[in-house]
Amino acid sequence: MIAVVIGLFGGLVVINSCSHEPDDLSSLREICFDTEILPIFTSNCALSGCHNSNGGKEGYIFNSFDKITSKGIQPGDARHSRVYTVLYALGENQMPPSGVLPEEQRTLIRLWIDQGAKETSCVPGEDGTDGSTANGVCFETEVLPLIVSNCAMSGCHDAASHEEGYNFTTYTNIRRAVSAGSPAKSKLYRSMSGSGEDLMPPSPYARLTAIQLDIVKNWILEGANETTCDSCDPAQFAYAANIAPIAGTYCQGCHSGSSPSGSIRLETFSDMEKVAASGQLIGAITGASGYSLMPPAGKLQDCQIEQLSSWVAANTPNN
Questions:
Q1: Kindly report the CA angle at 178 between 159 and 189, in degrees rounded to 5?
Q2: How many Å apart are CA 113 and CA 298, to the nearest integer?
């Protein structure tokens, strides 16, 4: 049984499937190529030496709609599209070779192909069908902790170091690197989505995922406002829908890449399961005796701590 997750109508649902057969797509929102599919390919596949514009390995180039759909995709049939099936390959055929894509990203690609592999484009609107909540991206719980975790580290853009004059620990200071309504003109987003020496976070830290970049991008498109929200439900603690996003937003900035802080990596389910079993996860987020409070930028919301505690108490299900 394979558990996959896809954002629908601003929410998350878990779909269980025993194969890659297309689901009934009639009730699903249309997947957006521009903001959901293209960033996955450009961040993970269109890299130097792989599938960028400089030739492209095996004739595959993954940096535009025309190139992505020119080979290896059968619109309406992901199951027979090599671009999709290779994402589940193992060993030397694994794609990307750096590591398997998160299940949510593979599912987005599958549904996009099954919906016809169209060049859909979307701008955040009142109906919330861009993948964000109907009320827009929340700066307080989605953007700020993501930036603090990945950028406001010692020696980088914290209050003490403020590298290049940027201190990314508060809304006011973050806005100095943002041009509201224009990700392309925002130094913050350009650095996060770029490459080479200007990429943030720098090596050896892991770069932001396509989903995380979309959070920042959509926040900027919506006006880069200091929005607050109270959407946490302590009774919900599914790994894919609740636990993984907490880790991705608050923890992975330090605990990822080739040299994770404290040699503790929190990128995958197995990483989280291992740390939870050792007692380190709950000890750190609650600041228990003998543990340093995590994340260092500030304690998680009580609701989030309750979600993580309930997940651990339920024997860390991978749901």
A1: 95
A2: 41
